[in-house]
Amino acid sequence: MRIQRKWGRMLKNNWKRLRRRRLLIVFGIVVLSSIFLVTRKNLGMKQSYCEPIDVVYTWVNGSDPLFIESARRYNPNYDPARFDDKNELRYSLRSLEKYAPWVRHVYIVTNGQIPHWLDLSFEKVTVVPHELLTPKPELLPTFSSSAIETFIHRIPNLSQRFLYLNDDIFLGAPLYPEDLYTHSEGVRIYQAWMVPDCADDCPWTYIGDGACDRHCNIAKCQYDGGDCNSFDSDKSEENIMEHNVNENKSVKIITPSPLNSTTHVEIRHFPLRKKFRNKKHSTQRNGSHFRELVLHKNLSTLAELRHIVDNYNNQLKSNSQTKESVLSTQASDQIMKRFEEGMEKTSKNESSKDIYSHSLINTNMLLNRFYGFKARNVLAHVGFLLDRNIINDMQQKFSKGIDVTISNRFRSTNDLQFAFIYYSFLMSERSTLTVEEVFDEFDTDDSHTWSDREVRTFLARMYPLPLDWSAVRFFEEVVSNCSRDLDMPSRNGYYEYTTLVYERYEDSNVPTITRQLVAQCRLLAEALETNFATRTKYKYNINPKRAIHNNFMMLTSNITDVVDGFDKIRRNPRKFNCINDNLEPLLAEDNELIRHLLEDFYLSFFPRRSSYELQFEYRNRFTTWQDYQRWRRRKRAALVVGYAASVILILFIIRYICIHKTKIARRYVQSL
């Protein structure tokens, strides 16, 4: 009995202590549980040194009768064959899981439809309807892929960089993040063929090249980029010299004055490098560039002159695909106005291929207006790595064209091709550094002054090599004159600049070149701004080997061609493989056979079910996103009720124990 009473008192005292410290105990339990869960999650995650990349698909089931009825409500001539679903998304996801398991999450953007085979309980996949993303819900439903692509970056919780894939693309080889982006080179760009010609025998290399092409002087070609408007005036201002070469040929050169045949050219200016030419200088005609070229040559015979002309013409041909000449604002506005008036007369009854080609031309015209006339390349049929911030900047710059694209329920000739304009924007945007920032790049020792070695680096990047001594003398004169005219003090603000002995060559007479001196010296500042201040804003790397990472096949109703195309892909599967549907709607029997051939082709690569799919014997109970959301709301409500009932029951038990604690303790002691 004495031992029982002793144990009873001990239990009673311990119970009192627990009651006084119950909040501390509860807090400790919560903290330990949180630490356990976080540690378990971190241990379960694979270590990765790359930033997360999500994948976004756009998908539609064009075989759905409700979808066909909705489309024909807005377009009675709607062709359902173009949106026919052939299970491409299922096999694309299988290839993604096999060859790109590093993908963090997959988002499937739909009009509200859900694939019947998709496992919605899988944590790495989410279906996102258009109504959650579009900035203009009143324009729904939309049946244009161009319009849908303008708002896929608005998906909640989407990674900063994401891979956009069409459902007709599948992976045929391991894909790594380095195939899409590297920190040193930026995003990798895979290009294909050039933008279609704006007219017959009128490629984009002819537009805005400084020569008037009469057959290109039409609205579709932006009136030859204004070349024909100023051709006559330019011709009258220049003296045209014609020299007979032989009986049938002649060489015509444009030159402002007779040439001065000297044996030495004294350099008395800082050169303007074409690579960093700004808009102010890019409006110069090719003729003026030719005159500058001739003036700096040592000419004495007609043969030398003819040699220069031939080299210059070859240079024009080689650079015609990369040069960027910017129209003046007034001329550009006039061209765009006339083009828009001409486009209003374009027929609307065109095939999807014609619509795609015309939308590419329309996009290229818009790019010409902002970045100058240039022959651009269309993107290959691959996955596109997109950046959300760059998309926002791009859409802000081309807001009018984006609004027009969104307003089109079906694909139209005045659409903007999303991937084409995105990568063209990425490659064309420029950022401008200040003179001080450029100065600091040459100031490698961070002394806030330029040493003779740093001056040598500056001159080597400014002038052609080997460096002529006159260039060095000219630089010394400019610096000496600016230092004397500006009367630079030895003490500037809080810095006192000193020229160390090892920073000067033995015969150097150059004064101390400070950042302030360079910024206030007009000639030096203009040289830095013109040649070094303009940079590409975004990093990118164009893959020089085209078609090495992608296969493209057009799925037609010709069974022989289809089988041959499948075998070619089987023989050499690449990272990205695209099978574009172009079946003839009238050949129903052949199309059905081709569907089975396509299914068999996919199964030869990916016969196993992926984690994104349900078991073969199961079928998704939800056909639309709205049904799925209603079920989720009911499920959440049931969970809330269940959790609330559990909490109430636990509280009731605790209260009962607190009220009858003495009786419970007595029974426990008696049982001992």
UniProtKB/TrEMBL annotation:
**Pfam families, from UniProt?**
Notch (PF00066), Stealth_CR1 (PF17101), Stealth_CR2 (PF11380), Stealth_CR3 (PF17102), Stealth_CR4 (PF17103)
Q: Where is the LNR domain?
A: 196-229
Coiled-coil stretches, from where to where? none
Annotated Gene Ontology cellular components are: Golgi apparatus
What keywords would UniProt list here? Disulfide bond, Glycoprotein, Membrane, Repeat, Transferase, Transmembrane, Transmembrane helix
Domain of life where this protein originates: Eukaryota
Q: Which Gene3D superfamilies match?
A: 3.30.300.320
Give all residue intervals belonging to the Stealth protein CR2 conserved region domain.
82-186
> Which positions fall inside the Stealth protein CR3 conserved region domain?
380-428
Any one GO molecular function term:
UDP-N-acetylglucosamine-lysosomal-enzyme N-acetylglucosaminephosphotransferase activity
Residues in Stealth protein CR4 conserved region domain copies: 567-622
Question: Which segments constitute the Stealth protein CR1 conserved region domain?
Answer: 51-79
Q: DNA-binding as a keyword?
A: no
UniProt keyword Transcription, yes or no: no
Please name the GO terms of the biological process aspect recorded for this protein, alphabetically.
carbohydrate phosphorylation; N-glycan processing to lysosome
InterPro entries cross-referenced by the UniProt entry:
Notch_dom (IPR000800), Stealth (IPR047141), Stealth_CR1 (IPR031358), Stealth_CR2 (IPR021520), Stealth_CR3 (IPR031357), Stealth_CR4 (IPR031356)
Where do the TM regions start and end?
A: 637-658
What is the similarity comment for this entry? Belongs to the stealth family.
- Name it: N-acetylglucosamine-1-phosphotransferase subunits alpha/beta
Gene that specifies this protein: gnptab_2
